[in-house]
Amino acid sequence: LLLIGEQMNPEYVRQIINLTQSTSASYLLMASLDISRRNLALRGKESFEEVIELSEYARHEINAIGGYYAYSKELIDGVSVCDFDVT
């Protein structure tokens, strides 16, 4: 990690690295993962449907700008492109 420039505080960077690097379990991280897992179990399908809806809306808006094109499922030809992740 390069600490170049006056805006980089080496002590702050060291603290952040120490927060993320540990041999012990991070209870904050484990709790966050548990909450995320529960949320996906209870609302996962609805959440992903909303993500797909938003990505399709964004793709439509980008294509309406002119000079830009956001690809979609039309790329699928069964030979070189077999599937397309709409998210």
Automatic annotation (TrEMBL):
It comes from Winogradskyella ouciana. This is Arginine decarboxylase. It holds the Pfam family OKR_DC_1. Keywords: Pyridoxal phosphate. The lineage of its organism: Bacteria, Pseudomonadati, Bacteroidota, Flavobacteriia, Flavobacteriales. GO terms for molecular function: catalytic activity. Residues 8-78 form the Orn/Lys/Arg decarboxylases family 1 pyridoxal-P attachment site domain. Its cofactor is pyridoxal 5'-phosphate. The keyword DNA damage does not apply.
